[in-house]
Amino acid sequence: MEILVTNDDGIYAEGIFALSRALKKCGRVTVVAPDTERSAVGHAITLSDPLRVTEVRRNGAFFGYAASGTPADCVKLAIRSIMKKKPDLVFSGINLGANMGYNVLYSGTVSGATEGALLGIPSIAISLATFVDPDFAAAAAFARKTASAAAKNGLPPGALLNINVPALPAGKITGVSVTRQSRSLFTDRFDRRTDPHGRTYYWLTGSLNRDGAPADSDTAAVARGSISVTPLQFDLTDEKLLGNLANWKFK
Ligand code: MN
């Protein structure tokens, strides 16, 4: 199996190292990832600047290609130019921080996988639900299991899975739930600060609001210590409003 690995935390992040090492047990891994952190860039691509690509070594061995672009750029570039053979699977992560609910719209990690899906390749995003003291072992092991399961069961071209792993030791994880996307969003707050020159600046912060997330959702599953696997799609059409709008007289 030919696997493309990307992320949005950058090629030097710990999570992508853990993911690529785990996936090497199920296939040939090519890493193409942003040269610096590009978290929360969503599905942005780079049009007004060239993309520079450099070979990166980690722990004394060739690790992958760093590109001066976004996760979506990296996947496009890998599939269109860098890889000799189209990958059978795209894997994005392991992200530092969960990507659940409506919040996935901002996620560079999910967008790396979405780009793979748009190009017709089964794609998977994986995130660890913590920003501090990450232990990627359980998430990496689950990524390897999912890649093997995808090879065995077959994922249709364009399938997109969003995996979120609770920040717990493997023995404390309560199970695996197939979930729907919740409507959870971050409760935004801007820290208003003053720089050393006396000028005001703002820094966005907040936390995921889990209120009202249904039991069968990604947010609820991770909250009860379960790994969440959500199949996503990117046809954003509002079917209900579609019928209603048809009755408007646009003249
Ligand atoms: Mn990130």
Describe the protein in words.
The structure is a single chain. This protein has 6 helices and 11 strands. The model has no long low-confidence stretch (mean pLDDT 96). The radius of gyration is 19 Å and the shape is globular. The strands form 2 sheets. It has a 9-stranded mixed beta sheet, with helices on both faces. Strands 9-10 form a two-stranded antiparallel sheet. A hairpin with a 5-residue loop joins strand 9 and strand 10. With 251 residues, the protein is an alpha/beta fold. It has a single domain, classed as Survival protein SurE-like phosphatase/nucleotidase (Stationary-phase Survival Protein Sure Homolog, Chain: A, 3-Layer(aba) Sandwich). Manganese (II) ion binds next to strand 5 and helix 3.
> What order do the strands of the largest sheet run in, or round the barrel if closed?
3-4-2-1-5-6-7-11-8
**Assembly category:** single chain
What would you call the shape? globular
- Counting helices, strands and paired strands, the structural category is alpha/beta
Q: Using only CA atoms, what is the Rg?
A: 19 Å
What ligand species are in this complex?
Answer: manganese (II) ion
User: What letter string, H or E per element, gives the SSE order?
Assistant: EHEEEHEHEHEEEEHEH
Number of helices: 6
- Percentage beta strand: 25-35%
* Low-confidence region ranges: none
| Overall domain count | 1
